[in-house]
Amino acid sequence: MTKVEKALTTLKRSDTHNEAIKSGIQQSMQAGKVKLNYSQFLGYTKDADGNLIIVPKEAEVVRKIFELYLQGYGCRKIKRWLEEHGIKTVTGKSEWSTSTINRMLSSEKYVGDVLLQKTFTAGAAGYQVKNTGQQDMYYIRNNHNSIIDRGIWKRVQEMKGAPIPEYMSIDDTGIIPDAPEELGIKMC
């Protein structure tokens, strides 16, 4: 076998292995099994079983960020407030990023929900791509205890001018509408 043939065989095996891993991850998401980056998720950590649990002191910071936003503070003003009060980021930094604060204000995780597969790995180089419907996403409601009340979260989204996805809303009857299948979002 030539070096080229060996290299091609190795690439084929690697592709098969990668597809098997992707398939396993997809099956886990379909079953509603959640894997998140807990180390950089302010307000939560995981227990011995891998479940999200609230870190009370960090949760206070998350609630304060939402409260300040509702009081009319923008992300820059919240950043300044946090830094002036000596509140560190989840990674221990003294300086906050306005984009981090903005993402926190938009995150469904703070109301106890999870949207899986917002991004996915594409191409042989393995770079992350935002999922705009190329692959199914999985929405898991009440996956873990919430830090932020849904009503507060919804008011913040309205103030931000962010559309609230239908599958995150509760109608007057208390019924949660199904996620739109045409967007590739499946409720778990």
Overall shape: globular
What string gives the helices and strands in order? HEEHHHEEEEHE
- Estimate the mean pLDDT confidence: 77
Biggest sheet, in brief? 3 strands, mixed
What is the CA–CA distance across the termini?
Answer: 48 Å
Strand segment tally? 7
- Kindly provide the name of the CATH class of the largest domain: Alpha Beta
Number of domains: 2
Which CATH architecture of the largest domain is right? Alpha-Beta Complex
Q: Which oligomerization state do the chains in this entry correspond to?
A: single chain
Counted by DSSP, the helix tally is 5
Helix fraction, binned, reads 25-40%
Work out the strand percent. 5-15%
Please, what is the CATH homologous superfamily of the largest domain?
Putative Large Serine Recombinase, Chain B, Domain 2
Class from secondary-structure proportions: alpha+beta
| Unreliable residue stretches | 20-26, 170-177
Radius of gyration over C-alpha positions, nearest whole angstrom: 20 Å
What is the CATH topology classification name of the largest domain? Hect, E3 ligase catalytic domain fold
Strand order of the largest sheet: 3-6-7
